[in-house]
Amino acid sequence: MEMEKIILTGDRPTGKLHLGHFVGSLRRRVELQNSGQFDKIFVMIADAQALTDNADNPEKVRQNVIEVALDYLAAGIDPEKTTIFIQSQVPELAELAFYYMNLVTVSRVQRNPTVKTEIKMRNFEQSIPVGFFCYPVSQAADITAFRATTVPVGEDQAPMIELTREIVNRFNNIYGETLVEPEILLPDNAACMRLPGTDGKAKMSKSLGNCIYLSDTAKEVAKKVKSMYTDPLHLNIDDPGHLEGNCPFIYLDAFSTDEHFAKYAPQYANLDEMKTHYTRGGLGDGTVKKLLISILEETLAPMRERRAQFENNIPMVYDILRRGSIEAREAAAKTLDEVRSAMRINYFSDTELIKAQSEKYKK
Question: CA end-to-end span of the chain, whole Å?
Answer without folding.
Answer: 47
